[in-house]
Amino acid sequence: MEARIGVLICDCGQGMQNIDFGALARQAADLPGVTSVNLSSDLCLDEGTKKMVSLIKDENLDRVVIAACSPDMKEHIFRDMLEKAGLNGNLLSMANIREQCSWAHDGEVTDKAADLLRMAIGRVRLLRPVEHREFPVSTEVLVVGGGFSAISTALRLSGVGLRTTVLESEPVLGEGAGEKEDLHGLDRGSMIAAAERDGNIDILTCARIASVEGAPGDFTVTMRTDGTETARKFGAIVLATGFRTELTPGPDALIDARELCSAGVVSQEQLLGMLSNLGLEARPAIVGFLLDLADENSRFTTLATLNNALAVKSRWGSEVYVFCKDVKVDSEGTERLYRETRECGVVFLKCDSAPEVTVDNGKVRVEARDVFLGDDAAITCDLLVAEELPFPVQETEVLGSMFGVRLDSGGFYQDENVHLYPVDSERKGVFFVGGCRGNWDIVRVLTDVSSVVTSVCGLLCPGSIQVDVEKVRVDPQKCVACLTCIRVCPHSAIQLVRVDSGRDAAVISDLACDACGVCAAICPAKAIEFEGYRDDEILAQIEAVG
Amino acid sequence: MMMDGIIVAFCCERSGYPAADLAGRLRLHYPENLRVIRVPCAGRVDVIHIMKAFEMGASAVVVLGCEEGACHHMTGNTRARERVRYCDTMLREVGIEKRTAVMVNISPNAPHKFVTAAVETSKILEDLREAR
Prior knowledge:
The structure holds 2 protein chains of 2 kinds.
Chain A: E1 5-10, H1 21-29, E2 34-40, H2 46-58, E3 63-68, H3 71-84, E4 92-96, H4 98-102, H5 110-124, E5 132-136, E6 141-144, H6 148-159, E7 164-167, H7 188-197, E8 201-204, E9 207-215, E10 218-225, E11 228-234, E12 236-239, E13 243-248, H8 250-260, E14 265-266, H9 268-277, E15 286-291, H10 299-316, E16 319-324, H11 334-343, E17 347-350, E18 356-360, E19 363-370, E20 375-381, E21 383-385, E22 387-392, H12 395-403, E23 430-432, H13 442-460, E24 464-468, E25 472-474, H14 484-488, E26 494-498, E27 504-508, H15 518-522, E28 528-530, H16 535-543
Parallel strand pairs in A: 1-2, 1-3, 3-4, 6-7, 6-12, 7-8, 12-23, 14-21, 15-16, 15-21, 16-17
Antiparallel strand pairs in A: 5-24, 9-10, 10-11, 13-22, 18-19, 19-20, 25-28, 26-27
Helix pairs in contact in A: 1-5, 2-3, 5-16, 6-7, 6-13, 9-10, 10-11
Chain B: E1 7-12, H1 16-25, E2 34-39, H2 47-55, E3 60-65, H3 76-93, E4 100-105, H4 111-130
Parallel strand pairs in B: 1-2, 1-3, 3-4
Helix pairs in contact in B: 1-4
């Protein structure tokens, strides 16, 4: 049966002056299969949508091309419009004549618009309907980790009514590394107490994950506690395993100094202890800090250094020197903190190479060339606070391969585009929060926690997930079970399953699939079809150019 | 040929496509001979798609994927890079020297880079045309 294609052209409220819409409509009407062409200027608004719904019904259209703005803007509205008119939402193709035509070029661009329209019509002829299905989901959430980020996440998730399980490998909560910087008025102890009191939060300590299977809304996690394994269902999993810190520049340069002068070189944590315990009579007269010796200083180290330098100055009144290459102030409020630190008398010595740390008469001596003074500065400190850098915790790698998520070059979990997918991993339903992704500070952790609560709610709170059924599909007749797709699938969505004929074939989980088409491109047997981006649909667009 | 002078740009819907949209919104102008084909990931672009464009007479094919290390689908962009390189080599091998296939890594918020890619591809074509 000949297709009945309806072409709807919208001028976006006369937002495209360099296209002759009359001529465009006439050109479209001459194309084979095009049953009706309509001009509109408010297609995405209620009134326009209603008109189009009745038009699709009246003209008995079976597929629709819309030439208007970018599909990134309004495609979902138009898909709903089709569904309202009784058509499958996938039978829509859009020609982006606004952002990628009218607005991108000077002068008359009707010809290009007609070309884009022809490409969309070429594609729409081949589109097939894709059905949706509702999958019920488990509304329980698993939070892996027991530090600040994990506890904050659990409290917030419980606050929106989601049952949350916190799984910590250590015997107690709150043993993370990230708590050395100012917690912005948050009290870790009372947070842990609140989590323990909360009826919506289960806390499992000394527990580890043995295996993970399944798709978003329906993960089966096997957990090991005291040698016993239990399997439980979760709808979403949040990894908040945090980070650990190491003194830098590593053992070689500083350990010697530490051995020779045990009280002379300390970590930030030791300094915090001394600040609260040391009597005023024992206070050190000169305190040095090292910062940014490796070329990439971390946000939390910068904040810890500035906060602690300020505390040393105000509580002990010592002379304070910070040896640094640069102070990076990209965390919220750090610029102000830096100014405050300088104004109260902390001296920053900016050196272009790492300062030399030696021991002289039982005291630590730091020598560096200050680039502003243009001269060598040598300071003998009573106390030298070494720089600490964040490193991934040991379980990061194991969990990473278990969950099928990538690590970055530093061994942390790879973060996604910070604007579009702030807490997402490449596996749907698995999220990251906080320092397990590396260079984080408390403000960023709190932002992450809000983002993850929003994402998890969006996924689980409706109680079911709507998925496209077989949008990407393996033809079991063509599949030769070569496992190529299973190897390359970035979202662990493909499994080998025994099909009716007694052979093995790859099967794609609709829930886990993220519709990237990597498998469709790589399949040597061309057995995988990605509806909407099938080979013939892409080729038809190319053939329609010109 | 029908498509002579046309640049076919396969744009990943998470990077190249939003970058192209943003270029339009900012009224950054680029050569009119560019035709964008939206793909879900640069890794969806297969050799057959690129070669089809050349068969139809396109002067250049640009594949725009995410920055390396930032592909939402992990390795889609690096797979695309390999395929583009393969196609470009194949063109040279069969003696088609005035056309080219180019891979561009781009962020969704980099409209200027999109324009640069379009302009530079046109420049490459010009250079190829002038070369003997």
